[in-house]
Amino acid sequence: FFEALRDPKTWLLALFVGSTNIFNSVTNQRQLIVQQFGYTLGQTTLLGTVDGAVQILIIFGAVNLIRYIGNAYTAILCYIPAIIGGILLITLPSDNKVGLLFSYWISIFAIAPFVVALGWMNNITAGHTKKTTTSAIVLIGYAIGNAVSNFMWKKQYQPRNRVPWAIIVGLCGFSALILLVLRMHLAMENKRRDNEQHDDKYDDVYLTHVEADGTTVEKKVDRMSIGHMAGGIRKRQRVQLFRIVRLKGRTCGKF
Fold first, then answer.
1. For the segment 50-71, what is each residue's pLDDT rounded down to a tens digit?
2. Which of 125, 96, 108 is nearest to 50 (CA)?
3. Residue 209 DSSP one-character state
4. 83 vs 23, 42, 86, 135, 201, CA distance in Å?
5. The model's pTM
6. Which partner for 4 in 92, 130, 192, 196 could form a disulfide, CB atoms 3.0-4.6 Å apart?
7. Of all residues in the chain, what percent are helix, strand and coil, respectively (each to 5)?
8. Alpha helix locations (H) across 92-127?
């Protein structure tokens, strides 16, 4: 628990999730935003079906892109079209309702980094308690971001809502910067661990097995294999298994 609180990754992830989910207010305001582009109520409702298709395609593409360039760069790359779409929504003339609509659809790229970050968080956080604590803090950031985001859509900014879109563009850039800092932090941690002197104390692990004829056989095994073996047996058998594990000729207890 306290390790999660002291870990910079926890607070970077929470800050990222809070800032990137400001964009979620667009979902709540979507009907009003598109209608103020100059579309009728019926057209706005019909165009809403496109939003879902765009979101599915964006998330599907982002998830598949991870295998090629990694989590951080995938999320940062998704912010580029989102920022372009937001800038166009601010600068395009009001009579260009088709351009405004497509700019709005382009801005939906901003939803993908949050999905990418959720999977990334699980990969870079070890230990059940630490994962649970980190998830709780990140969800608090998520709740705060969603709670405060709707307050920027004021009537005085309508119909173009340039101020909310400017805030979203700024937060997209800020969120991308957080991800870049997080990646740099993880790279430094990996480099630090790689430079540490290797401790070979537990490299040689032996499992003692007694044959049917009473012969004792020691077999070198991988410690992860022992963990998997222990996971599928009863508690009493597991204790017995750990008691017969030998490390460099010495019997070790539970580990």
1. 988 999 999 999 999 888 888 8
2. 108
3. E
4. 11, 28, 5, 28, 52
5. 0.72
6. 130
7. 75, 5, 20
8. 97-107, 112-124
What stretch of H or E contains 5?
Answer: helix 2-6
Closest CA to 86 of 207, 169, 167: 169
Residues in CB range of 173: below 8 A, 6 or more apart: 79, 83
List pLDDT tens digits, range 22-37.
988 888 888 888 988 8
Question: pLDDT tens digits, residue range 104-161?
Answer: 999 999 999 998 888 888 777 777 888 888 888 888 998 998 888 888 888 898 888 8
Alpha-carbon dihedral sign for residues 48, 49, 52, 56:
negative
Dihedral sign for Cα 15, 18, 23, 24, please. Answer: positive
162's tokens = 């340039």
End-to-end CA distance of the chain: 21
In whole angstroms, give the CA distance from residue 5 to residue 134.
Answer: 8
Q: How far apart are CA 27 and CA 157, in angstroms?
A: 17
CA distances, 68 to each of 56, 59, 60, 73, 124 (Å): 20, 15, 14, 10, 18
Write out the two tokens for 65. Answer: 């892109």
pLDDT at position 188 is: 83
What SS3 state is found at 254?
A: coil
Q: How far apart are CA 34 and CA 154, in angstroms?
A: 16
Cβ-contact 230, 243 below 8 angstroms:
no
Residues 6 or more apart from 14 whose CB is under 8 A from it? 137, 138, 140, 141
